[in-house]
């Protein structure tokens, strides 16, 4: 531990006492409002644990409670629990509507879903995670937050970026690191810290950046971020990259939070209002054009299309909104805008777009993703609930709900104007179809 504090003293100089002063304080906690589903003006007054805005993102707020993953509005995708300073990287990336954006090291999905909010349903988000179990967690969060225009992949960075060379407008590399900025959350981790670990992390970070650079078009920008304080993993990684890649230049993040490092890079310490983050922004100036072709996909067969049309007409008001439907091994998917999708053949894709349902024997079973991707008013049958209703608790627990007898068929359950999940109504009861892996036995507001 003393070795780490000696290193921080050398790094911070006169600011080291400020760092020590924060060391014994509780870590910062935050949420980011998911503007794909709800506005801060509507959500924040509902939640008594929300405090001031963070300086790191327009829709980020400090919170005073922990374990918010069981809260009904979290289940509904109204907010993402996120360490405040972690929101800084996407803010620096400067995502604009219509952008094609790659989040290369994306799990568990905090920054991917922040990118999705900025895209507001336009453009394309590609979220990749190399560790398969973490990639499935990423997919679950993309689904929960109602992101329609995303591809979720499980690929090595060098393979993915070589396939998609020159394709993206913006790339985020939130690199795996030694996590020194997270020590206040778990001081026991400091006993496992070694200088050698930072060095080994920097080797991997440099390799990831060398892969990531390929995916950018000319004039595209890349943000490199970590949640560590180590110079070896931050400034020295950027300096090494710029020496090897003179076609890139370091540019202004446009951010004023934290403290500057050099001319353009930014650092965030606990005395800046967050646990710890480093952000640098780079622009690619060399010619690089994507030549891999665009996505093609098989249309459903005549019989499949007939079943799909009948299925959608029985559930949603506007079936025609699903324009790029394909069927893969019995799974019915609505792809993102095909004019923006690159060729994904022979790639390890967990999900492209929205999963609408699955073919079963003689029928189609709707998927939870169909509910999360739409608003309650998109459905023909709706059970609208308020936050304090006991039925909300019952639904999240997976219980059968008593309803009006006239409601029959697949219905959406909504809370405070946001879809929560599906159920099948018959004879005055709604059979609960909330996914078993998402159910919780108890929660308290």
Question: What report would you give on this structure?
Answer:
The two termini are 38 Å apart. By secondary structure, this protein is an alpha+beta fold. The radius of gyration is 23 Å and the shape is globular. The strands form 4 sheets. Strands 5, 6, 7, 8, 9, 10, 11, 12, 13 and 16 form a 10-stranded mixed β-sheet that branches. It has helices at residues 2-12, 16-23, 40-43, 72-75, 88-93, 110-119, 132-144, 157-163, 195-212, 235-244, 302-313, 368-372, 390-397; strands at 30-33, 50-53, 60-63, 79-81, 100-103, 124-128, 150-153, 168-174, 216-226, 248-251, 259-261, 265-268, 277-284, 325-328, 331-334, 349-352, 354-360, 363-366, 382-385, 401-402, 409-415, 418-426, 429-432.
List the helices and strands and how they pair.
Blueprint: H1 2-12, H2 16-23, E1 30-33, H3 40-43, E2 50-53, E3 60-63, H4 72-75, E4 79-81, H5 88-93, E5 100-103, H6 110-119, E6 124-128, H7 132-144, E7 150-153, H8 157-163, E8 168-174, H9 195-212, E9 216-226, H10 235-244, E10 248-251, E11 259-261, E12 265-268, E13 277-284, H11 302-313, E14 325-328, E15 331-334, E16 349-352, E17 354-360, E18 363-366, H12 368-372, E19 382-385, H13 390-397, E20 401-402, E21 409-415, E22 418-426, E23 429-432
Parallel strand pairs: 5-6, 5-8, 6-7, 8-9, 19-21
Antiparallel strand pairs: 1-3, 1-4, 2-3, 7-16, 9-13, 10-13, 11-12, 12-13, 14-15, 15-17, 17-18, 20-23, 21-22, 22-23
């Amino acid at each position: 531990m003393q070795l780490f504090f000696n290193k921080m003293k050398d790094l911070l100089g006169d600011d080291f006492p400020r760092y020590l002063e924060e060391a014994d304080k509780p870590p910062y906690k935050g949420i980011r409002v998911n503007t794909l589903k709800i506005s801060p003006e509507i959500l924040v007054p509902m939640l008594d644990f929300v405090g001031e805005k963070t300086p790191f993102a327009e829709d980020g707020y400090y919170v005073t409670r922990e374990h918010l993953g069981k809260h009904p509005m979290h289940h509904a995708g109204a907010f993402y629990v996120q360490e405040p300073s972690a929101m800084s990287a996407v803010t620096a990336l400067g995502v604009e509507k219509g952008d094609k954006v790659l989040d290369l090291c994306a799990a568990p999905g905090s920054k991917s879903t922040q990118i999705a909010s900025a895209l507001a349903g336009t453009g394309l988000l590609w979220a990749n995670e190399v560790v398969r179990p973490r990639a499935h967690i990423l997919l679950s969060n993309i689904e929960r937050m109602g992101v329609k225009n995303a591809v979720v992949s499980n690929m090595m960075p060098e393979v993915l970026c070589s396939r998609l060379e020159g394709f993206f407008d913006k790339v985020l590399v939130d690199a795996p690191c030694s996590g020194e900025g997270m020590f206040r959350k778990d001081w026991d981790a400091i006993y496992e810290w070694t200088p050698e670990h930072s060095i080994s992390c920097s080797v991997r970070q440099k390799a990831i950046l060398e892969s990531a650079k390929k995916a950018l078009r000319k004039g595209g920008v890349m943000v490199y971020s970590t949640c560590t304080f180590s110079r070896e993993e931050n400034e020295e990684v950027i300096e090494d990259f710029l020496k090897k890649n003179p076609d890139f230049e370091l540019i202004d993040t446009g951010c004023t939070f934290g403290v500057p490092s050099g001319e353009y890079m930014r650092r965030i310490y606990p005395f800046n209002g967050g646990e710890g983050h480093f952000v640098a922004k780079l622009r690619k100036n060399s010619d690089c054009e994507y030549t891999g072709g665009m996505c093609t996909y098989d249309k459903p067969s005549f019989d499949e299309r007939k079943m799909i049309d009948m299925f959608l007409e029985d559930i949603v008001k506007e079936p025609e909104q699903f324009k790029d439907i394909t069927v893969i091994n019995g799974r019915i998917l609505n792809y993102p805008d095909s004019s923006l999708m690159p060729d994904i053949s022979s790639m390890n894709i967990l999900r492209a777009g929205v999963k609408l349902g699955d073919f079963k024997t003689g029928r189609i079973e709707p998927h939870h993703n169909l509910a999360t991707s739409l608003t309650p008013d998109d459905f023909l049958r709706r059970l609208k609930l308020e936050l304090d209703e006991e039925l909300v608790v019952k639904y999240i627990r997976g219980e059968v709900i008593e309803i009006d007898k006239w409601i029959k068929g697949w219905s959406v359950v909504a809370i405070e104007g946001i879809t929560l999940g599906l159920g099948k109504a018959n004879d005055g009861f709604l059979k609960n179809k909330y996914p078993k892996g998402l159910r919780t036995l108890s929660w308290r507001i």
